[in-house]
Amino acid sequence: MAHSIGIDIGGTNTDMGLINEDGIIVARRNLPTNRYTDFDLYINDISRELQAMTSAAGVEIDGIGIGAPNGNFYTGCVDNAPNLTIKGNLDFEHALGSRFSVPVALSNDANAAAYGEYVYGGARGMKHFVMFTLGTGVGSGIVVDGRLVHGSTGAAGELGHNILVPGGRQCSCGRCGCLEAYTSARGIVQTYRELYRAAHGAEPDQEITSKLVGQKAHEGDPTALETWHQTAHWLGIAMSNAVGFSSPEAIFLMGGPAQVGDPLLVPLRQEFEANTLYIFHNTCRIMMSQLKANEVAILGAAALIKMKQQKV
Amino acid sequence: MAHSIGIDIGGTNTDMGLINEDGIIVARRNLPTNRYTDFDLYINDISRELQAMTSAAGVEIDGIGIGAPNGNFYTGCVDNAPNLTIKGNLDFEHALGSRFSVPVALSNDANAAAYGEYVYGGARGMKHFVMFTLGTGVGSGIVVDGRLVHGSTGAAGELGHNILVPGGRQCSCGRCGCLEAYTSARGIVQTYRELYRAAHGAEPDQEITSKLVGQKAHEGDPTALETWHQTAHWLGIAMSNAVGFSSPEAIFLMGGPAQVGDPLLVPLRQEFEANTLYIFHNTCRIMMSQLKANEVAILGAAALIKMKQQKV
Question: Domain A3-115+293-311, CATH 3.40.50.300 — does that match?
Answer without folding.
Answer: no
